[in-house]
Design a protein that fits this description.
Helix 4 crosses helix 5. This protein folds into two domains: about 325 residues, Adenylosuccinate Synthetase, Chain A, domain 1 (3-Layer(aba) Sandwich); about 90 residues, Orthogonal Bundle (Adenylosuccinate Synthetase, subunit A, domain 2), CATH 1.10.300.10. It has twelve helices and 19 strands. About 30% of the residues lie in helices and about 20% in strands. The protein is an alpha/beta fold. The radius of gyration is 22 Å and the shape is globular. Strands 11-9-7-4-12-3-13-2-1-18-19 form an eleven-stranded mixed β-sheet, with helices on both faces. A two-stranded antiparallel ribbon has the order 5-6. Strands 8-10 form a two-stranded parallel sheet. Its EC number is 6.3.4.4. One of its GO terms (biological process) is IMP metabolic process. Belongs to the adenylosuccinate synthetase family.
Length: about 450
Amino acid sequence: MSSISSLTVDPYTVSFSRRAFEFHTRPFLPRRSVALCSAKPLVSSSSELTVSDSSTLDGLSRIESLSQVSGVLGCQWGDEGKGKLVDILAQHFDIVARCQGGANAGHTIYNAEGKKFALHLVPSGILNEDTLCVIGNGVVVHLPGLFKEIDGLESKGISCKGRILISDRAHLLFDFHQVVDGLREAELAKSFIGTTRRGIGPCYSSKVIRNGIRVSDLKHMDTFPHKLDLLLSDAALRFKDFNYGPDMLREEVEKYKRFAERLEPFIADTVHVMNEAITQKKKILVEGGQATMLDIDFGTYPFVTSSSPSAGGICTGLGIAPRVVGDIIGVVKAYTTRVGSGPFPTEDLGQEGDLLRFAGQEFGTTTGRPRRCEFTEIQLGVSYKYVDGTPIKSFPSDLRLLDQLKVDYEVLPGWKCDISSIRNYSELPRAAQQYVERIEELVGVPIHYIGVGPGRDALIYK
């Protein structure tokens, strides 16, 4: 990421410290120091940001000053806490839009009463009743999962009617894509990718080889059966364990006839909607799924997702010009976790990693799988070296090389007290303050906000 202008630390302590921070960049416009935070643990009952001192007012002012089109992206391997940040910022935006990925994203947020919501396709702005939620053309949509998610929100009193738009260009992810995902992983045996098995990769594969089915195809049920037959036949030819016959096609077609009727009010030309909103000076917040280290081009390939969760995916996934994108807030958890396979130089495979996983509840929102965790001490990775001791200057594409890198750590003193109720920076333990200030020195950007819990008020303004 370039032109980093500020970041946010997110600490939480059980018997050790749990932390995350966020970078904020402004790739196309002049620099502006803005950042916000996210976290998961103790639920707060307050729905309003405290305005008891000038630092809080400054923080709110910074939020209001975010550019017309801003983005929230993960900078590691996902699970950084993007959902809470989007929920906080959504109160200051007209539209929240997803631009890539699918139901492999898992964003956990809490409402004002502390009720928990786990979202996978619906943008995290849905709890803010004045926010329009857009699922863009770059997203792959599993309709059974989407309807289940909408029904769950409605059952908890969250109205979705007229508040969700789905791109007519978005590709449909079918149940068979999920079956194929599992068959593909089984084929790879010990070299498996470690996907969520939500069918994301197979669906994007259908899109890229140009036999995919888009949302707009639901308007033409006369040709839909033929297109679906081609997709299913292709899967049957590729995987001998995929059983396909006339009954499956007939059942799927009937099911999608019902889906088409229910989905109709949600379908829109979201490219037009987004660009009209930009012309009308409405504020748009883009919510990324997954994270940069899972990017199909820039991540730890092949242990990556099938889309572009980095900044470039915003433009292609929504159909908007690069020049309109302003502030990008990159979310980073201060101890790194990842789900699935692939190199992880700082991973802790011992007791401390297990302690961190259970105390920090490091289990994937989408799959429930345990996240792989790094060391629980306050260790800052400050540089990387080749096996022969030569410093490395850029992130390597060679995974064998990445797996062999040596990490230079700087160890800082920790703290064991609960900081979840602290709201003033000066009241943090001195060790926590030293940690925050050392990050500022190393990264070269200021920290403005520190998160201490998942609630909307669980922020320290620095």
